[in-house]
Fold:
Amino acid sequence: MASILKNILVLLSLLFVLAFGYYLYVQNGSASLDTGTSQVSLDVQAEASAFLVKLAELKAINLDNSIFMDPRFMYLVQYSTEVEPELFGLENPFSTDKENDQN
Structure:
């Protein structure tokens, strides 16, 4: 009796899986994806035109570099001191303090 019940449950579950698979197969063909490409392309075109306007403005700028040839600029002296690099951390981050004390 138990084996007949087990066979019926296996058969019903197999039929359920097949029916669900068929349902998904049928739904896959009828599904459509709306990407809204018209709005996206309009946004991209607006951003591209704004970028081209800014690029044209930047290309129109002429920089005068004569200040770098001024003698007052040429005789500037730098009084900064160079910072020496220092070691930080452990050579082996997985080592214990006892291992580092020995080295």
